[in-house]
Amino acid sequence: MFIYMSYSGKFVPINKNKYKGDWTKIVFRSTWENAAFKWLDMNPDIKYWNSEEVVIPYICATDRKRHRYFVDLYFENIKGKKYLIEIKPNKETKPPKKSVRRTKKYIREAMTYAKNMSKWEAAREFALDNGCVFFIWTEIELKSLGIKIM
User: Fold this and answer.
1) 115 assigned to active site
2) What domains are there in the chain, each with its CATH number?
3) Tens digit of pLDDT for each residue in 32-55?
């Protein structure tokens, strides 16, 4: 059984010239983001990257109001391909399991899922309009990329 503990902190890149933005303000919000930042920073195939610097407006399905989505990662590889990346646990990329009773937990999970779907649809459209591709990296993708997660 895995226990996922989330933590946050400041990330200081070794290759500061690869970070497009203010490298003194890089914040990771999970062990997975921290591991992805290290991978991007040290990967010779990555030309440049940033975190939460790309902001995408979206209409949330839960309240029908306009919000701003700060994408976890943006990077370009040395071949010129551009990526927008969201890092999430795999379980949060799927709708919550149906419940006979509408518990507070189920309602919270359903609202979070609907909000994420709104964000990710906006990100896909933004990516298409801006010559990027959008991916959601879960623990599965992180492991397949060789990104060590705790």
Assistant:
1) no
2) 9-144 (3.40.1350)
3) 999 999 999 999 999 999 999 999
